[in-house]
Amino acid sequence: MTEIATPIESLSPLLDHTQLPESDGTFVKNFQEHPQSILLTDSIGSILQQCHPDGQYAIGQDCGIYWRQTDPPERGAEAPDWFYVPNVPPLLNGEIRRSYVFWRELRAPLIALEFASGDGSPERDATPLSVSMGGETTRPGKFWVYEQIIRIPYYGIYEIKTGRLEVYHLQDFSYQRLHPNGNSRYAIAPLGVELGLWHGTYQNQTQLWLRWWDFEGNLLLIGDEKAEVERQRAEQEKQRADRAEQKATRLAERLREMGIELDEADLE
C-alpha cells in the first residue's frame, strides 16, 4: 500500500490530542471488541492502583497512538484494541484524552492487545516504512510500528474466531514470541499478572475471553464477580452462624433434660 509523502517542512507544528482525529472512520469489527476491552480494564484496576497510587496511568481502548506526522494525520496512527501506558496522567489539562500522541509524551505503552476478527494477518504485518526515489511512502504494518518505532514491550494478538492467543516480548530490539506457562498463560512480569483465555459468560455472551490472573493463579475479578463472591461469603457466614446457634440450642435442651440449667453466657 502506498501513499504520497508530505514533506515534513510543509506540515504544521506538532499537533496535540485535541487537534488530531480521534477516529479514522472505520467501524468496530465485531460485537466482542468493546465488552472484551471493558472486561480487561475492569479486572486489572486493583493491580494498577497498587502500581500507581498516584493515579498516573492511562488505558486506551480502540484509541489512536500517533507516532508519525502525516497528511492526513490518521495515516500516522495505529489504534490497538487495548493498551496501557504507565506513568502518564489520565487527563491532559483537565481534558479526557482523545488519542495518545507518542511524539509529545515519548512514553511507550507497556502492553498493547489486538482482537483480530480475521486470521491476524494485519496484526502480524511487519512491513517496514520506506520511501521510494519518487517520494512514495510504503505504509508500514502495525507489527513493525509497535516493534520498531513505538517499541511496546508486550504485544498480544488474540484471534477471536479460532481462540488463538500469541504474545510477543521486545527483546534485543525485536519481538520474540513467548511460550505459555503450564496454565497456558503468559506472564506480564512488570505488572505481576498473567494473560490467558477464560471460557465464560460476560455481557450476555458465552465464549472465550482474554482475562488476567495473578501469579498465584487467581483470576482477577470484575466488579460483578467481586460482589457475587462477597454475597456468597456473607451467605456462608450466615449459615455457619445459624448452625452454631442450632447446635447451642440443642445442647441447652439436652442439658435441661438432665436437670442442668445454663444461662446464655455459658452457651456462647
UniProtKB/TrEMBL annotation:
Pfam families tied to this protein: Uma2 (PF05685)
GO terms for MF: endonuclease activity
Entry coiled-coil feature ranges: 224-268
Keywords noted in UniProt: Coiled coil, Endonuclease, Hydrolase, Nuclease
Residue span(s) of domain Putative restriction endonuclease: 30-198
KW Ribosomal protein (keyword) present: no
Protein name as it appears in the record: Uma2 family endonuclease
Origin species: Lusitaniella coriacea LEGE 07157
